[in-house]
Amino acid sequence: MDRLAIYLAVLSGSSIAGALVIAAFSMGYYSVWAIVLCVVIGAALSYPTGHIVSRRIKSRDPEWNPRHKPGDFGKVPPPDAPEV
After folding, report:
1. Rounded (to 5) percent helix, strand, coil in the chain
2. 84 in a domain, yes or no?
């Protein structure tokens, strides 16, 4: 997972959870368990959506030129590593 995907995972997780909380409130579910369920679903979907959006952004960018293969540095790259 590259740095762009990590940033996008944080943004997408909070967006998904927020949208689900708003939907739950609009349907009349005001319990703590409804909010917890929405947060868990948002957290579970944050990694896949961040990864998918990152790959789509990089595949459509004509100026993108990766310097190494994905996965060379493991899941979390070191801070001085080039972007995947």
Report:
1. 65, 0, 35
2. no
Asked, for residue 53, whether it belongs to a domain, the answer is: yes
Measured between alpha carbons, how far is 25 from 18 in angstroms, rounded to an integer?
Answer: 11
Does 21 reside within a domain? yes
What is the DSSP secondary structure assignment for residue 81, as one 8-state letter?
Answer: S
Question: Residues, the chain, total?
Answer: 84
Which residue pairs from 65-73 have beta carbons closer than 8 angstroms and sit at least 24 positions apart in sequence? Answer: 70/2
What is the extent of the structural domain holding 42? 3-59
pLDDT in tens, 14-70: 999 999 999 999 999 999 999 999 999 999 999 999 999 998 998 888 777 666 666
Handedness of CA 54, 58, 61, 66 (dihedral sign): positive
Read off the pTM.
0.72
